[in-house]
Fold these 3 entries.
Entry 1:
Amino acid sequence: MKKITFNITCSILFGLPDGDLKDELLKDFTLTVKGVWAIPLDFPGTVFHTAIQARQRLCQKLSTMVRTRKKQEDEGNVDTEDDNIVSCLLALRDENGQPLLEDEIIDVFLSLIMASHDTTAILLTLFVRHLSRDPEVSSKVIEEQNEVLKAMKENGGKLTWSEIQMMKYTWRVAQELMRVNPPMLGSFRLVTKDITFDGYHIPKGWQIFWVAPGTHMDNNIFKDPEKFDPSRFENSSKAFPPYTYVPFGAGPRVCAGIEFARVETLLIIHHLVTKYSWTEMIPDEPIIREPMPYPAMGLPIKLYPKN
Ligand code: HEM
């Protein structure tokens, strides 16, 4: 799943063709991310040192890409159909009319890859795992996706925006999966003024970490929080109180890729359930958090093509 979502991000956001470069980027990116959570000891053999080296290789490759793109644009060699985020970042000007530095473009690039591919891969993995364990939910998802197939046939075989809008139950399952196991546990906020919350004084300048399970598993907000129940999301008018359902965060810094993640998840699940069935190879494989939730052994499955 990580490879699929990485490839999608690289193709759609950055216009990279399939091939060795994407594979090398994914390898170095995976090593770099491991360093984020490692003890910062920078000498040969440590996870941190390997991560630093991988990041340097990544930056070199991204720098070549950015320069090549800039050269093509300067020479007028780019088809506007090929527009991607690198072009947008190259075109950006600050309040003084200055372009972004190459390092800034590379940082945005890395942040976007980080924000987009692991999170969606986790949601998809949890989805695959759940469908193999919950026959009732699984048959409803398959039923909905078979309806989508019928609509596609009438539409000349194309999967368009209107078919995506038909995938309501499938998305509710995704929402419930993210309630129980949010891919991102939470995020940091800087306290900008002294406040008192629930009897605790929190001084200005502190970094605080909000956590999604704090509200996702609160019985006063989500009745029977341990129960897996996609119907909680059936009635959008019966919305939950603000800032309580927060797999994508909330407020001004809410996830910028919610719709991207929704469409990507629904498309992949559509192709999976209409073309394959599967069984887990390791029964009762647990979910571990390091710190993102992932099946402990990577969820090996046996895939069976459908006729
Ligand atoms: C299931 C998939 C995803 C989940 C669960 C998720 C979750 C989150 C969360 C919790 C935040 C932090 C919000 C906050 O601090 O309040 C965030 C931020 C962000 N996400 Fe996502 N995300 C997903 C997919 C994506 C995708 C596909 C993209 C890009 C295509 C993306 C781009 C971003 C960006 C750019 C930010 C930073 C927004 C900002 O600070 O202004 N995310 N995401």
Entry 2:
Amino acid sequence: MSAPHEPTAPFAKMNGLGNEIIVADMRGGTARVSSGAAIALAGDPATHFDQIMAIHDAETPGTDYFIRILNADGSAAGACGNGMRCVVEALAAENGRSSFTFETQSGILTAEVRGDGLIAVDMGAPRFGWQDIPLAEEFRDTRAIELQIGPIDAPVLHSPSVASMGNPHAVFWVDEDVWSYALDRFGPLLENHPLFPERANITIAQVQSPERLVIRTWERGAGLTRACGSAACAALACAARTGRTERTATVVAPGGELLVEWRTDDHVILTGPAEWEFSGRFDPATGAWERADAEAVAS
Ligand SMILES: N[C@@H](CCC[C@H](N)C(=O)O)C(=O)O
């Protein structure tokens, strides 16, 4: 670990159901976390993360903070449900508040700490138009688009539903156990398929009952993760839209269970836990970092 250059910013290493998150406190200044810093932190096993959630001062009246989201490859993301829960957990520990209004690249969203300690994030409305996702060509019906992988006459995965939750998602429906698919091999090919001009998060989903979905996700810019909140929301919305499930279901990811509700007002509510691991300070330009003392706990 190299010595950070000044000025440094506080961060907390956290996780949302095993989705590895760094919450970076960038308030009170104009500095941003650079792509290079993100790549450096992701490449260090001690700080490896799937997303950085950078908390900035609010830009729009009526909002509390602006959240910038970076993937492990340094690219920007419009949404991160598990990361938003980590942000809420960190802010609630700091100021005792239980509800927040955030602005992100994809719009305004609200979140609250529930009485049982779980955190509910209003992820907004799913969008299904082909330009919204976006797709490179017109598909009038995005409940099942023409896309497959594997032998042409016996595809391994095919006909995904697609949706935007502020970020692009493709959901492939499977009958077999989700662990029987080589998502580490197919994920990168599908993420970068020419049909997705902004790449896409790739999920395989097995419907176990109208109230239970099992998913695995290859995340755009991060690879295989133990949970992806926006993918859980996209999978539930696509499942309900195609009559596969009810509008409320438990979505099971490798890291555990999330509750997803697609309300009648079109908003998707994602509920689950968030966990603090350790805190430190880092240089947002380079990613050089140091751990806080054992006594200096969550930021
Ligand atoms: N882990 C996230 C999604 C992260 C963003 C994604 N990789 C993208 O680039 O769109 C979640 O919990 O939603």
Entry 3:
Amino acid sequence: FIYVLTAFFAFTTATMAQTKPEKRVSITLKHGAHRLGKRTDKQMQTWRNYGLGQFIHWGVYAIPGGHWEGKYYPGAAEWIRSWKEMPKEAYDNLYKQFNPEKFNARGWAKQAKEMGAKYVIITTKHHDGFCLWPSKYTDYTIAKSPYKKDIIGQLVDAYDAEGIDVYLYFSIIDWNHPGYRSSLKTEADRKEYEDFKTFTRNQLVELLERYPSTKGLWFDGSWDKAWIEQAEFADELGRELREMIPGLIIGSRFRADENGNRHFDTNGDMMGDYEQGWERKIPETIEDIHGNDWDCVMTIPENQWGYHSDWKGHVKTSNELIEMLVKSVSLDGNFVLNFGPDGEGNIRPEETKLAAEIGAWMDVNKEVVYGCGYLDWKKQDWGYYTVNRETGKKYMVVFNMPVSGALRVKVPDNTRPDKAYLLEQPESDITIEEIHRNEYFVHYKPMTPVKKPFVIVIETTESDADEGHYQKAKT
Ligand SMILES: C[C@@H]1O/C(=N\OC(=O)Nc2ccccc2)[C@@H](O)[C@H](O)[C@@H]1O
């Protein structure tokens, strides 16, 4: 009885908070996490070392681009079908106009390469159900549009050719399918939903069969009650998909456990290979990631994934986005920047400019991102530390120069900083002053005004003897 009561409280806490429940007890779950801790296989090591990715949200929602009959849609452009001002019939016939003549998969992939993206997540089908590949399970696909050709196939080939790993975004929500339900209220619902489940499984198998170079699936739209009830089905489907492509990477947004817990099961263990909860937000501390792999997916405006022709509010600068990238890497995560091409297949000028600025910064500083992660030194105000997981090379990525020019560095016991130099000028010799026990100032005054974040490499000696001049106060 105590067991049941405890499990009940664990479940209630988790469901209410929709966050990682405290690890109270480990109850037996059939459809909870199937692995504790990080995956250690090669494919996952590759994933964990990407650093920077690109998200692409493209579909028929790019045609209205956040407007309908002269009215401005204030929501996320890819959700315009749900807008009360948008006649569903009108939306569902937009595909008959979809003919993106400017679409150039090679051009998109080249731009992503120059930006420094190591992986790309491409929407195969968003919540509206329109398929960018010629699925044989529905007529609501690119094959029935004036464009006709397979968009996903062209993008997979183009990104593969650039050496950028491809991940496929798939929305469980599908407003176009007659069997889709957000909740199952009647027996009729349940019967219809069985067809929808089969359809969903068939499309996912079809995608992996058509595009076997896919490295993973990025699921979305899995928060509906109807889907959350499908713990056993989803678990089995995940197993089937993983069997089709060994090493396939699937995040925590795919399925719920038998108690309805998503991302983290009733025992507080993550379900999936990495945590997908960081959408338009980044963890603050290493404790926030609970020892899991994770990615942050980020929009350039506040909240537009699909193309909106009139971005309102703050549009992030490349300095802001570079800081988000470095902050993510400094906390053992990946940063995925979203692009929303327009209805003609163009990448908009604002995104092209940012991709170029980020790419220029990555050309010089990529080694502080690729293959790097968390260094357990105390975070300082001037920026972030990253460390190369293989070489142990340590980086100070500076975003906020102190007026003193003295960058504070606190090191763990038995660690002595010996040398510091600018990554861009290895011959530069930056003064390190010991100011207290395990505490130093790295003195650096830029010769010219600092316009972009810059990197100082710091070399240390790990010593046993504690030869510092400063002793801990014996209060
Ligand atoms: C990447 C984004 O993912 C979405 N939604 O994500 C979430 O709703 N995330 C979420 C849901 C519940 C809690 C916290 C985050 C989609 O609706 C959106 O159009 C876009 O494709």
